[in-house]
Amino acid sequence: MVDVMSTTITTYDVKGMTCGHCVRSVTEEITGVEGVSAVEVDLEAGTAVVTGDVAAEAVKAAVVEAGYEVTGTR
Fold first, then answer.
1. pLDDT digits (tens, 9 = 90+) for 25-44
2. How far is Cα 38 from Cα 15, in angstroms, rounded to an integer?
3. Which domain holds residue 68?
């Protein structure tokens, strides 16, 4: 986790994504979380990099809502 001017950047490891539709679904769900200012989902790396003032549990819940699993954060 890196703090930048009171904004946190967290990388979430996301298990189960296999295609562009998966990336879109995860991106849309996380974008809808209050406090998220940016999301970058990488299919090959299996990650979602989230920027904003947001609770990790809310992001994890959004990933689960999209149908995937968070296996770690950094």
1. 999 999 999 999 999 999 99
2. 20
3. 2-73
Q: How many domains does the chain fold into?
A: 1
User: pTM for this one?
Assistant: 0.90
Instruction: Identify which of 16, 12, 21 has the alpha carbon closest to the alpha carbon of residue 68.
Output: 16
**Which is nearest to 24 in space by CA: 58, 66, 69?**
66
What does the alpha-carbon distance between residue 54 and residue 36 come to, in Å, rounded to a whole number? 6
43-50's contacts with Cβ under 8 Å and 24+ in sequence apart are 43/17, 43/18, 43/19, 46/13, 46/14, 46/15, 46/17, 47/11, 47/12, 47/13, 47/14, 48/11, 48/12, 48/14, 49/9, 49/10, 49/11, 49/12, 50/9, 50/10, 50/11, 50/12
Residue 22 sits in a domain whose CATH number is: 3.30.70.100
